[in-house]
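Forwarding the complex inputs:
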Amino acid sequence: MKFGVVVFPGSNCDQDCFYVIKDVLKKPVRYIWHQDIDLDGLDCVILPGGFSYGDYLRTGAIARFSPLMKSIAGFTRKGGSVIGICNGFQILLEAGLLPGVMLRNRGLHFICRYVYIKTENNDTRFTGFYNAGQILKIPIAHNEGNYYIDASGLKELRDNNQIVFRYCSDSGEVSERFNPNGALDNIAGIINKKGNILGMMPHPERSSEKGLGSEDGYFIFKSVVNFLEKKRA
Amino acid sequence: MLRAQIYITLKRTVADPQGLTLKHALESLGYKDLADVRMGKLVVIKLNFQDKKRAQQQIDQMCKKLLANPIIEDYHFTIEEQ
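Prediction (whole assembly, two chains):
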C-alpha cells in the first residue's frame, strides 16, 4: 500500500504528514506536486494543511482548480481514500467533494492550541482504531475553521452519520463552551456519504508521537492502513 | 473596453464576525446609531470587448464558478463602458 502527500504552493504541513507516514507509520509514501495528475499505485492521498495559494479569495478556492484536483475526484470515484487536514479540508469543501463551507473563526483570531474532539463515528475506514465516543487530544491551527452548512445539509450529515468528530471538553462534553471557532454543531470533521473522504480541522500529523504531547492522531493513519490491509487480504 | 464591478457579500443568514467587529469599533468612535455593519469584497474586471450582453453572461458565470461561494455568499455586479 502506498500513501501520497499533495504539495500545493503554500502547503506547509506536507513534510509533517510525509514524516509521520514514513518514519512513524513506516509505510511507503511520495509527494504529489499540484500539477501532477498521476496517482497510479496510491491507496491513500493526504491533502495537508497550509495556506495554498495564499488563501486568496477564499481558503481552498484556488487550489480546487489545480490539475491534480481532477485526478483526485476520479481517484475518489474509484474508491480511493482521501484525508484532508485543515487547509486540505477547506479545499475538499471548495471542490465539492465534501459538503459545507468554512467561515472565519467566530472570534476572528487565528487559533493554535490543543483541543479535545469526540469520535462520533468510529465505523469508518479512518476511525476504526478508536472506541465509540473516544475523546482525542489533537491540536488545531487555523483562521477559518468555523464550519457552516444550511439546515437541510446539517440534517443530511446527521441522518447519514457523516459527522465524525466534534469539539468537546476533556471529559467529552460537547457544548458551545468547548467550541473553539464557532463551528456549527461543534463539527470538527466530516466524511462523505460513500465513506472514503475524510475532512478534519485538527492536525493528526502533529499528534502522532507521545513525545509531542499526544499520539491520538496517529490512529487515523493506522486505521486506514488496517482498512487497506484487510481489503487486500 | 468594459469595466465590471462585482460585489460579493455574505448572505443575511450567515454571521459576519468582521462586520460585527467593525460595528463595535465604530460605536467606540461615537457612532452609536448603527443598525448593522456587513463587510464584503469588491472585484473589478476589465474586459477587452464591448458586447454588454456577453459581458453579463461571462461575469455571471465567473461568479458562479469561482468568485462567490453560493452556500454563504450573494453577489451582484455592474458593467460600464470605459
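Chain B has one domain: 2-81.
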